[in-house]
Amino acid sequence: MLAGTVTAFSFMSAGTAQAQGALVMYCGVQEEWCRAMTTAFERETGVKVSMTRKSAGEVFAQVKAEAANPRADIWWGGTGDPHMQAAEEGLTVEYKSPKMGELQDWAVRQWEQSKNRTVGIYSGALGFGYNTELVKSNGIPEPKCWADILGAKLKDEVQVADPNSSGTAYTLLATIVQLMGEDKGFEYLKSLHKNVNQYTKSGAAPAKAMALGETTVGIAFMHDIVTMVVDKAPIKVVAPCEGTGFEIGSMSIIKGAKNLDNAKKFYDWALTPAAQKIGAEAKSYQVPSNKSTPVPAEAPKLSEIKLINFDFAKYGSSEERKRLLSKWDAEVKNLP
Ligand code: PLP
User: Fold this and answer.
1) In angstroms, rounded to a whole number, what is the distance separating the alpha carbons of residues 193 and 199?
2) What is the pLDDT of residue 334?
3) I need a labelling partner for 94 at 20 to 30 A (CA). Which of 169, 191, 207, 267 fits?
4) How many CA atoms lie within 13 A of 320 on its CB side?
5) Which of the listed residues 31, 224, 228 should we mutate to test ligand 1's pocket, taking the one with most ligand atoms within 8 A of CB?
6) ipTM of this model?
7) What are the structural domains of the chain?
8) Ligand 1 and 202: CB distance under 6 A
9) H or E element: which one contains 161?
């Protein structure tokens, strides 16, 4: 439902929109936020936006497949790893926004590490949640740590996305490897597989399934689980006791963009507090990258979560990302 929808908003009169031209955006966050950004940018500029929402790995695959004749101009949102890989593979271009001086250090570091080809737009920590009613009725101890979701009582009761399509799930893979070391990390993922009921395409799907009572535990970005809590679902959000990874959601301009000026216009606008506060209004509770954008009260506090020293350059590199994903396919996904 979320993946692959195409939306062309046209609130401006055709004449105005045409006068300002068009922009083709691939959007990697939740559909609601993608739509809200599209609408606001159209209102602000008169540029007509054609937006497609896909998960991070899927956008990467599409941008790569279209490299000879790019369809999109701007790739906004989604975890940084495929943006970093695209930068390394020359699928995106260098750009220095006049807004760079207003950004948090982690957002600028992302830009520097990608040789000026992708910039941080928000950050958020990975975690899991559990449905409090299901835990209670099935007599399951409340999980607090990554180790706790391996228990036999959670067989077929854990949901997470597939790291090939989902940036959230790739963040889990890279987090577990960094936290436990590669050998122990893969042992962990194989044990977890016994409890996984479904590898979804989109990273936030497990949070929704948890809210509907379709799975007891869902692994996702904590801010995506908070969205469900705000909607009054019986869910508790957990920052795993061993420590956890985090993402730097990113933005890149596609190489060969047919609407390059509008891509730059969007890029500069997307780094402003006015554009970034649309996230919280659309119930997405990440930490925004512009220092002046208010941090939503609902956003999980990164300073209170035990975060690993995530190596974004290494785990976003083309070689490492490809290697880990094929290893996960070979050793985890196809286990019985
Ligand atoms: N939704 C939100 C709000 C996010 O912050 C992110 C990651 O940046 C995602 C979704 C990731 O989506 P997926 O895991 O489907 O690539």
Assistant:
1) 9
2) 87
3) 169
4) 19
5) 224
6) 0.95
7) 6-123+248-300 (3.40.190.10), 125-245+319-333 (3.40.190.10)
8) yes
9) strand 158-161
φ and ψ at 140, to 5 degrees? -95, 130
d(CA 121, CA 248) in angstroms, rounded, equals 7
Looking at the CA of residue 58, tell me the nearest atom of ligand 1: 16
Length, in residues, of the chain: 336
- Please report where in the chains the tokens 């009582």 appear, as a residue: 153
- Would you state the structure tokens that stand for residue 87, as one six-digit string? 């930068």
Work out the average pLDDT over 241-252: 98
**pLDDT tens per residue, range 66-104:** 999 999 999 999 999 999 999 999 999 999 999 999 999
Position in ligand 1 atom list of the atom nearest CA 79: 8
Q: Give the pLDDT of residue 19.
A: 58
Give the contacts of 247 (CB within 8 A, at least 6 positions apart): 79, 80, 123, 124, 126, 167, 168, 171, 221
- Tell whether ligand 1 has an atom less than 6 A from the beta carbon of residue 227: no
In short, whether 170's Cβ falls inside 6 Å of ligand 1 is: no
Atom number, ligand 1, closest to the C-alpha of residue 161: 14
Return d(Cα 47, Cα 21) in angstroms, integer: 5
Are the CB atoms for 300 and 237 separated by under 8 Å? yes
283: left (phi over 0), alpha (psi -120 to 50) or beta: left
Is there an atom of ligand 1 within 6 Å of 55 CB? Answer: yes
Q: Torsion-angle region of residue 139: left (phi > 0), alpha (psi -120 to 50) or beta?
A: left
Distance 126 CA to ligand 1 centre (A): 11
In the numeric block, the tokens 């606008």 are attached to 269
Question: Is any ligand 1 atom within 6 A of the Cβ of residue 299?
Answer: no
Ligand 1 atom showing the smallest separation from residue 205 Cα: 15
Cβ of 75 closer than 6 Å to ligand 1, yes or no, is no
Q: Is 23 in the pocket of ligand 1 (CB under 6 A)?
A: no
Cα–Cα distance for residue pair 124/285, rounded to 1 Å: 8
